[in-house]
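tool_call: predict_structure(chain=1)
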Amino acid sequence: MDYIPDHLDNNLLILFIGFNPSIRSGEEGHHYANPANRFWKILHDSGLTSSRYLPEEDASLLELGYGFTNIVSRPTVGAADITKEEYMIGRQQLKEKIELFKPKYACFVGKGVYQEYSGKKKVDWGFQHPSIVPGTIDFVAPSSSGLVRMKVAEVTDIYRKLADALKLK
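tool_result:
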């Protein structure tokens, strides 16, 4: 199974960062392609996009200034299948991507993603201070996976804080 390509560009508004692609995403070749994943609904309902995009349109979000990557690029059934070595390598690669492309916001799609990246044990939802890479603001949002026990409205409200911050800039 091929890895899903990152969608990166210089000076993005938001770089969305997941754990790793699902098997379905790996098969489809697009980010957040599992039908049980609520990512595209959350983006629209939070005000981050004016319409609801489909997974196969993921690359077109570069036009909005939104990019996609993962801390680990290998598709797996779940995050529990990611090895410590993959996290170690992925953590360094992710930091290098953020330093190179300089997104305004790094949105970590899942608290565990940020914990793996930052090494911090206690993390709250929303903006993180200080950020790991100077010049990029870290934002932690809940995972959009259908396995998350939070109500989609609660998850959307957290993403809305990021949408509101964009409107202020």
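agent: The longest helix spans residues 84-101. Proceeding to next step.
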